[in-house]
UniProtKB/TrEMBL annotation:
Residues 4-180 form the Hydantoinase/oxoprolinase N-terminal domain. Pfam families: Hydant_A_C, Hydant_A_N, Hydantoinase_A. Residues 203-489 form the Hydantoinase A/oxoprolinase domain. Residues 503-673 form the Acetophenone carboxylase-like C-terminal domain. Coiled coil: none annotated. This is N-methylhydantoinase A. Signal peptide: none annotated.
Length: 681
């Protein structure tokens, strides 16, 4: 028995969850993030864990880690400078993309600058036809010339994305082999090896994102491995993935693209675990950190998965936990433009210098400063004592905002908070519209450092009746990393009509993917338990342009039950579009296999509930809706299962502060979750 540690690096704080395998006691910690020295915050946290809790690195039995190194490389434009080799005639694949307006609600929105500029996109004379047959084989001299051209224009790594490589990757791999022969130290990536999907843009942009981040991510993971060994951490680190799973650090060096959205995915996994434990079947998770608010919908503890998630301004087409990000975090900066219009975000103060009230050199007003100004923050420290809130510095930062809006600092602070909530309302309403659901049927689960401050305000705007605040909301993403299973996705493009003639081809494709998946889990990850397999297919009616991912039973594929396969697609089409054509021909474009190896989960026992009305430690003044209200100040440690209180209330704890405005009542359930409900009218 030892200690399992989960780490999640955010824009302002790095979070730690430490689980005692013998007692299931959970300890948590926050330290300030170090964007100037990624990884330093992990080592600082380990030192703090030993100092505070007496847990030495040698006692760690499992270590999982989510990092923002990859996603920050894309957002900040600090990834490797890529050269892209494409089939002659397809040089504009990134420029053309899908010719869609990024934001259909903004006619002036612009598509992002291509990840690889056109002067580093090099055409190569070669051709593989759609049936996978090679028509023009690339000449070694032409490959050498393409490499020379890319390097002459500054390429530090090469991505190869050739036509129809999903069907036959031979040309991509032969080009890579020749480049490796000519430049052994140059990183080279094949699109078919990154994610072999149909459609040139989708496969190419995914490969380019991977190629851009892989050198930096691999270097970071290598340094982390060395530092952990030096500190005395014995087990090899695990890396959280965008699909809600984990993989070994060694795999993370190779499959760097799979960990780009690891932090947000781990938070959703933690939220699903909490919601299921608390007995809520339909939940909207709201994870607000220093930079963004991440929203996901969960049913029975499980999130949706999708492809095409944005990393910065660019989509990746690997399956990821379905999360919508909004540029409104605790560190989001407020400003008044030349026309006197208030704006909040997406620019963030981050951890350096951070909000003005942190006293670390920040001078521009943030959402956190707004909450300090109205009085919600300031009664206690933040981040386990990492910072103390200075309201006077928040007021100084709010002064130009108040002057620009011609109102008091308190009213300006309320306006900042209201605008932040309005921005979240707009995006979350769009999310519910997309899935055809009513927000009133969901419970909001708020976490992250700033989620509990804003959760009730957003729930009230959305018409939701209840808000869940987990026991350790500020570090739930770190806990999610400890709960995640080993998980990976595999895909094979098949282009088969659903019918008797396709049974053998579909069966072979599934068998090949299953073997590949089992090799990844048992050989690559060293897993020794039972594997869980799920099968889906990207299906469409013949003639349609896009597919629907449809769950299939493995036995249908094994038995060649094409009737059951077609019926599953008709049903799925009807669920999404409210109609289907049972007489139409159905086509399978690709088959997918997801494999999971279950990791040990903590079993938190429900505690005995003793009903009691808790009195606040004191009353504090809060500026609310243009007036001052007296709010009860509570310490989360004083609230045991069965404790209840009435709002307005501020609840302090080490990792966050919760704001329950007037009209909400709170109680603690048997698992220590704080449940805030709208008061009965």
């Amino acid at each position: 028995m030892g200690y399992r540690i989960g780490v999640d690096i955010g824009g302002t704080f790095t979070d730690f969850s430490v689980l005692d395998e013998a007692t299931l006691n959970l300890r948590t910690l926050k330290v300030l993030s170090r964007p100037d020295a990624p990884g330093a915050e992990v080592l600082q946290g380990l030192d703090e864990i030993e100092k505070r809790f007496g847990i030495a690195p040698s006692q760690v039995s499992y270590f999982t880690h989510g990092s923002t190194v990859g996603v920050n490389s894309i957002i900040q434009g600090k990834g490797a400078k890529l050269g892209l080799i494409v089939t002659a005639g397809f040089r504009d694949v990134l420029e053309l993309a899908r010719l869609k307006i990024p934001d259909p609600y903004d006619l002036f929105s612009r598509r992002p600058v291509p990840l690889v500029p056109r002067d580093r996109v090099v055409p190569l004379l070669e051709r593989i036809n759609a049936d996978g047959v090679a028509e023009i084989v690339p000449d070694p001299a032409a490959i050498a010339a393409a490499l020379e051209q890319a390097e002459a224009r500054g390429a530090e790594a090469i991505v190869i994305a050739l036509l129809h490589s999903y069907k036959n990757p031979a040309h991509e791999r032969s080009v890579k082999a020749e480049i490796n022969r000519l430049r052994p130290d140059l990183p080279v990536f094949c699109s078919a090896d990154v994610w072999p999907i149909v459609r040139e843009y989708e496969r190419t942009i995914t490969a380019c994102i991977h190629g851009s981040v892989q050198p930096r991510v691999s270097h970071y993971i290598g340094r982390l491995e060395d530092a952990l060994i030096e500190r005395g951490v014995v087990p090899a680190p695990m890396i959280t993935k965008s699909n809600g799973g984990v993989m070994t650090a060694a795999a993370g060096k190779v499959r760097s693209i799979e960990m780009l959205l690891s932090g947000t995915a781990a938070g959703v996994i933690g939220a699903g675990f909490t919601a299921k434990l608390a007995g809520f079947s339909r939940v909207m998770s709201l994870d607000i950190g220093g930079t963004s608010a991440d929203v996901a919908l969960l049913k029975d503890g499980m999130p949706d998965f999708r492809s095409g998630e944005l990393v910065g301004a660019y989509p990746i087409y690997l399956p990821t936990v379905s999360v919508s990000s909004i540029g409104a975090g605790g560190g989001s900066i407020a400003s008044v433009d030349a026309l006197g219009v208030l704006r909040v975000g997406p620019e963030s103060a981050g951890s350096t210098p951070g909000p003005a009230c942190y006293g670390r050199g920040g001078e521009r007003a943030t959402i956190t400063d707004a909450f300090a100004t109205i009085g919600v923050l300031g009664a206690g420290g933040l981040g386990y004592g990492a910072v103390n809130v200075d309201r006077s510095q928040a007021l100084a930062a709010l002064e130009p905002i108040a002057r620009g809006l011609d109102r008091s600092s308190e009213l300006a602070a309320e306006a900042i908070i209201q605008l932040a909530v309005a921005n979240m309302y707009r995006e979350t309403s769009r999310l519910f519209s997309q899935v055809g659901e009513e927000p009133s049927g969901y419970t909001l689960l708020a976490f992250g450092g700033a989620g509990p401050m804003l959760g009730c305000l957003l729930a009230d705007a959305m018409g939701m009746q209840s808000v869940i605040i987990p026991q350790t909301p500020g570090v739930l993403a770190a806990l999610g990393g400890l709960l995640a299973d080993l998980r990976s996705d595999f895909v094979r493009v098949v282009f088969l009509d659903v019918g008797p003639s396709s049974a053998d081809g579909l069966r072979r494709a599934m068998d090949d993917l299953t073997k590949e998946a089992r090799a990844w889990l048992f050989e690559g990850q060293g897993y020794a338990g039972e594997a869980a397999l799920s099968i889906t297919a990207d299906m469409r009616y013949r003639g349609q342009s896009y597919e629907i991912e449809t769950p299939l039973e493995q036995s249908w594929v094994v038995d060649g039950d094409h009737g059951a396969i077609a019926a599953a697609f008709h049903k799925r089409h009807s669920e999404i579009y409210d109609h289907s054509d049972d007489a139409a021909d159905v086509q399978i474009v690709a088959i997918r296999v997801v494999i999971a190896g279950v990791t040990p989960k903590p079993h938190f026992a429900e505690q005995r509930v003793t009903q009691q009305q808790v009195q606040p430690r004191k009353l504090i003044p809060i500026a609310h809706q243009g007036s001052i209200v007296e709010a009860g100040l509570f310490d989360r440690n004083d609230l045991s299962p069965g404790s209840s209180f009435a709002g307005p209330a501020v609840i302090l704890q080490d990792d966050t502060t919760t704001w329950a405005p007037p009209g909400f009542e709170g109680h603690v359930d048997g698992f220590g979750n704080l449940i805030l409900k709208r008061s009965a009218i």
